[in-house]
């Protein structure tokens, strides 16, 4: 499921949907525009996981949720907890690897206070 959202509902979506992958982007960001169709395609391959995009320029408060400094930034959340925040240059494979890691997390992994390792 792919959805473009506002910062008003970002917190709720992250907290209420188990595993969520977020792309922070902006209209002026070339790499953001390049990654959007790749991100959408990945969402179709993993329909059970919400994929959301938020315009971090339009909704600057949203950046605080994942300490976003650069765009595009991707953030993986599980049960409201930030597990991984990363920047990638048009590499959908890295995002796919992150998704696979998220899908295989145990409850114990989520309770650890450390960032995910993705090869």
UniProtKB/TrEMBL annotation:
Organism of origin: Cyprideis torosa
SUPFAM superfamilies: Thioredoxin-like
Database matches in Pfam families: Thioredoxin (PF00085)
PANTHER family in UniProt: THIOREDOXIN, THIOREDOXIN-1-RELATED
Protein name: Uncharacterized protein
Superkingdom per UniProt: Eukaryota
């Amino acid at each position: 499921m792919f959805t473009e959202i506002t910062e008003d509902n970002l917190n709720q979506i992250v907290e209420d949907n188990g595993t969520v992958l977020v792309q922070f982007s902006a209209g002026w960001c070339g790499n953001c525009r390049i990654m959007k169709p790749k991100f959408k395609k990945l969402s179709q391959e993993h329909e059970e996981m919400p994929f959301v995009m938020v315009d971090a320029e339009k909704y600057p408060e949203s950046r605080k949720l994942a300490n976003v400094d650069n765009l595009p930034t991707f953030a993986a959340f599980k049960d409201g907890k930030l597990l991984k925040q990363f920047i990638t240059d048009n590499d959908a494979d890295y995002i796919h690897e992150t998704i696979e890691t998220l899908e295989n997390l145990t409850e114990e992994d989520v309770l650890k206070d450390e960032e995910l390792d993705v090869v």
